[in-house]
Amino acid sequence: MGLKERAVPRVWPPVSLCDHLKHATKALLKQLRGCGLTEWGCSLLGLALASKPFGLRVLDLSENPLKDEGVKRLCDSLQSKHCRLKTLSLKSCGLLDLSCRYLVSALKSNLTLEELDLRDNYVTSVGVKELRDFQPGPGRRRIRIYHDVHSGEEEVYTVPSPESCSPQPG
């Protein structure tokens, strides 16, 4: 049995999963790709991310059926001062445009997120536009957003930092 199967079994009693996530190591949390995590699991994962400042920088939740409700629950934790994620991959998670609205809301208070992968979801140009229209505040670095909305081609969009939008003294 590999690390993935031992890390997060597909069905756990709520207390055990919550306890596991609170005591999880960074290496273990990186193994959540395709583990069957649902929106309910996102609530517990969010509690762990928001309550334990262990410095997780990369979180790959790709290929899990999170849907919009899971992203909403996860975004609540992204707003915590303890959450220091730089890269969040939500590839193939069954997301719709509503997820983009939740992510924009989280980005307003999370200054550390630099990469967001939304490829292979059901996000349309409407959702991508919401992310593109996001205006970062002071202290925000640029954000790279990966998506494949237009004609199935992969696209990378960078939301510029406020400093790069300021006129340069001449």
From TrEMBL:
InterPro entries xref list: Leu-rich_rpt (IPR001611), LRR_dom_sf (IPR032675), NLR (IPR051261)
Keyword annotations of the record: Leucine-rich repeat, Repeat
Flavoprotein in keyword set: no
Keyword Protein biosynthesis: no
PANTHER family named among the record's database cross-references: NACHT, LRR AND CARD DOMAINS-CONTAINING
Protein name, UniProt field: Uncharacterized protein
Taxonomic lineage of the native organism: Eukaryota, Metazoa, Chordata, Craniata, Vertebrata
